[in-house]
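ok so i was messing around last nite and threw this chain in just to see what happens. nothing serious, just curious
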Amino acid sequence: MLNPRDLVARLVESPLELVAADLQKATEKAWKDRRHGLLNEWKGLLYSLPEIETCFANLTSDAVTIGRREQLSKKQQQVILDILKSLHPWRKGPFDLFGIEVDAEWRSNLKWSRLQGKITPLMNRLVLDVGCGNGYYMFRALGEGARFVLGTDPSLLFLAQFHAILNYAPRLPAALLPLRSGEFPAVQMRERGVEFDSVFSMGVLYHRRVPARHLLELAQALRQGGELILETLIVINSDEWLILYPEGPYAKMPNIDLIPSLGILNGWLEESGFGDIQVIDVSQTTVGEQRSTEWMTFESLADFLDPDNPEKTIEGFPAPVRAIVTARKL
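result:
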C-alpha cells in the first residue's frame, strides 16, 4: 500500500493514466529520500484495519465522513480508533470514520468555507493539491464534483493517514504521491498534454526559501486559463511593498524566510505568469481554528503567541494573518 508502485497504480484508468509512468519514475526517485523509522509500523497499522465495506460517504460536510457508526461492532470501532490514534499527530481535519471523530489540530473546514463559492466550481475539473497534508482538501474537492484529485506531500505520516481514510472509500478518484513541488514532473506531463484545471497551494508558500520558484512550479502544472487557489501568510501594514524577514523562528516555526504583503504577493504572481488576481479572504488565525487536541497533543497556536498580547507572536512579530488568493494562468 505504501510503496511507489501501489501509489501510482491508482492512476490507472484515470485522467492521469497517460502520465502514470512519469509520475512513477518521479515517485520512485523521491522515495529513496523519504525514509522514516516508523514506516514499517505505519504499513502494519494500515494492513490491520478491519475489512468493512461501506457505500456511505459525505464529502460536503465539515467533517469528511466515511461510513456509519452502526456498521461497526464495538471491537471493530476500538481497533480503528487505536490505529488512527497511532498515526498521531493529525494536523488537518476534521474526519469522521464510522462515527470516530478525528478532531485535528486545524479546523480545515473553516479555510474551506472561506473559499467555497468564491473559486471556479470544481465540477468535472482535474485538480492538484500541492502540500496536501493528509488530503482533507482533496476530499472536499471531490465533494464539489472534481473529476480526479491528485495530492502531493513529502510526509509519509500524512500519506498513511490519507490511506487510512481512503481504505474505506477506495473507489474515490484520488491519489496522493509523496513528492515535493520541485519533484513533480509538470513539464513532462504538459508535453504529453496533461495539465490541471485547478491547483491548490494551501499553507506552503511561506515554507519555500524562494517563493517565486514555487509559484512557477504551480504555473507549470496548470493549463492556460486554469485557476490557482493560494493560501499563505501575509503581513498587514500601511506599506504595500513590505516584506517581513523573521531572521529566526516565526511563531516557533523555524523554516520561514519571509512573509510578503499583499502588494508583494501580487507582484510575484504577475511575474510568474498569472493574471486576474483576486483576494477572496484575509483572516487572522485564532486559537479556535488551530489548537492542540487529543489527536494533536503537541504545542499549537496558543503556545506560539505572546501570552500578554495575542496580537504578537512569542518572538514579537505580528500574529499570523492568512490570505486566500485566486489567479489565472495567462
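not much to say yet. The mean pLDDT is 96.
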